[in-house]
Amino acid sequence: MLEFHQRCRRLSSAKLQEVFHYVLRRPFQGYHPYDQLKNYLLALFRFGEPDEQIFSAVREKIADTSANGIEQSLGTLCADDYIQWVKELWERRDQEPFYQQWPENIKKGRQQIDELRKSFGLTGSQSAQPASLMQPAALQFIVDAFSQPPVLPNAKDNEETILRILQHYYRRPGPERVIQCLGRETLPVVWKPAHSCSHVLRARNNLLWYIELLEKFDPMQFSDIEKNLLSLAIIYHDAAAEDVPKRDEEARAADYFKRDLQGQYPQQQLEDIAEALASKEDDVHGKSDQTISPSVRRYLRVLRFADRMDFIRCSGVDASFPGFCPGRHQLTVFDPWRLDLPSQLTRDFTAEPALKPDFQRQLEAAMHGAADLLQVTGSHSRDCRADSYIQTYHLKTDRTAIKEKFELTPLPLQNMENCLDDNVRRFIASRAGIHTCSSPDHKDCKTDRQNGITRGIHNSFHDLRQVQVPTGMTRLEKMQCRQGFSLLSMATQEAIAQEVQRLQSEGILMSLGTLTQQTLKSPLAKQVLEQRGFAVISEKRFRGYDDTGKVNLQEMLVPIPVGSVGS
């Protein structure tokens, strides 16, 4: 609370209005305005009042939201009702206990910090500051321990290296925050909710497909070493986020990046990419890119694009996405012009579909793929496109399962790649008339139990994975396929057409479930398993202990893949 108070006191009037705008949009990102926004607004009311321009921006946001989205966010309220509620809250703020008690709570917070400082022997004339920014000398050894670099032997853009970086910088507190955590009864499951592992993995995916797109149109070419370094750099870009003040995040992340990879890559490239990483938000702070060398500038472009493309996790995906059109209210929605695109490729951008240049069509199709991937890899943001991904494919997002895939598992990169491939599989299956089954009686998926075939997707681990992604399909094509099938190479289009034909002919094989010993004895079961690439063999399996303590082994029939027989 005290840190919030001090930050708000430093805000200019314009910045305060931006904060109001962000907060008032929260109902459309999975938050309810009454229970969770009220105190947030009352706290901000201590420093100012939202102006009419902000209310107009909120109205535009509501106008871009689907009717279903508005009902989920506001219930029966309309835009005017919602804004009137905010205005009435402002008028009666003096009657609200939270607003009334704010000065007293701030005073108590300062007293508690003073007492804490004295307990550590930190007396003096320094002004009180939040405990999160304190580093008592007696506990410096903890800060030093958490400041040690990760061990990254043979660092490359692979699962092993990326996992170590995520574990070191994203799955635990940074050195500045570790003291704040001492004495807590519980610790957060996700240390960086606004800059999570899933965010940096999506940013890495954005970087790789964007480089592929740039190389396709030849304005920039990158060596394999550069691609490796840039992929690792974008994983590092939020390494210090939520640990240090916002203004220091990029510089600290660049220091970590250069320190950890020292000696493993050419020094000049390492320094140039680190400089680009440190300069990523300079344009936001009003600094010019003119002083940056051309080599650093090209790295800076792709790093900015990769990170800012995933800003849709915060802004949501509005109905006009990607939004390369004039007159669009950039404050309220994702702003594609902040992606730092090469000017020579964007000068002919237009909102007219028939007049869009090839680069714009390719870019927009891939951007839609990024929005699709966001929906299945963890975000509370709304998808207000006419063909919303979740609604189109009848999906139900499990936020807990998504969090486990990226924040808790040892295979976060593989899980992200699987999610991307699964999106391609859904697209291919839909072209074959196979969709996610949402019918309790399975009539919609035309299940043929006699032959063990279904024409619906019931899960991703068995049914969906039977759809084959073309082996030669590039990352860029995977991003583009749903919105730009005609943009794919002829080889990829033909491979998808063949898979569609196979699915229409063969359907999806139903899961066999748990097979009993009686079933495995039957010739028909053995025949079906053989058709699916399984052989039934006899193995001795552990079945407990006898009365004398000896191990009991029992002959049991076991289905195993044909390729592993005799191995």
Strand-residue proportion: 5-15%
Gross morphology is globular
Give the low-pLDDT segments.
124-134, 328-332
Taking all Cα atoms into account, the compactness measure Rg is: 28 Å
Q: What is the count of β-strands?
A: 6
| Helix percentage range | 40-55%
Biggest beta sheet summary = 2 strands, parallel
Helix/strand-derived class?
mainly alpha
Biggest sheet strand order reads: 1-3
Q: Average pLDDT across residues?
A: 84
- N-to-C terminal Cα separation, in Å? 63 Å
Tally of DSSP helical segments: 26
Secondary structure blueprint with pairings:
Elements: H1 2-10, H2 13-24, H3 38-45, H4 52-63, H5 67-74, H6 79-91, H7 97-100, H8 102-119, H9 140-146, H10 159-169, H11 175-181, H12 197-217, H13 224-236, H14 249-261, H15 267-278, H16 294-309, H17 312-315, H18 343-346, H19 358-376, H20 389-392, H21 399-408, H22 412-431, E1 435-436, E2 453-454, E3 456-457, H23 475-480, H24 490-506, E4 508-509, H25 517-521, H26 523-531, E5 534-545, E6 551-561
Parallel strand pairs: 1-3
Antiparallel strand pairs: 2-4, 5-6
Helix pairs in contact: 2-4, 9-11, 12-13, 12-16, 12-19, 13-15, 14-15, 15-16, 21-22
Structure commentary:
By secondary structure, the protein is mainly alpha-helical. 50% of the residues lie in helices and 5% in strands. The chain is built from 26 helices and 6 strands. The strands form 3 sheets. A two-stranded parallel sheet has the order 1-3. The protein has a two-stranded antiparallel ribbon with strand order 2-4. A two-stranded antiparallel sheet has the order 5-6. A hairpin with a 5-residue loop joins β5 and β6. The longest helix is centred in the middle third of the chain and has 21 residues, at 197-217. The protein is globular. The chain starts with a helix and ends in a 6-residue tail after the last strand. Residues 124-134 and 328-332 have low confidence and may be disordered.
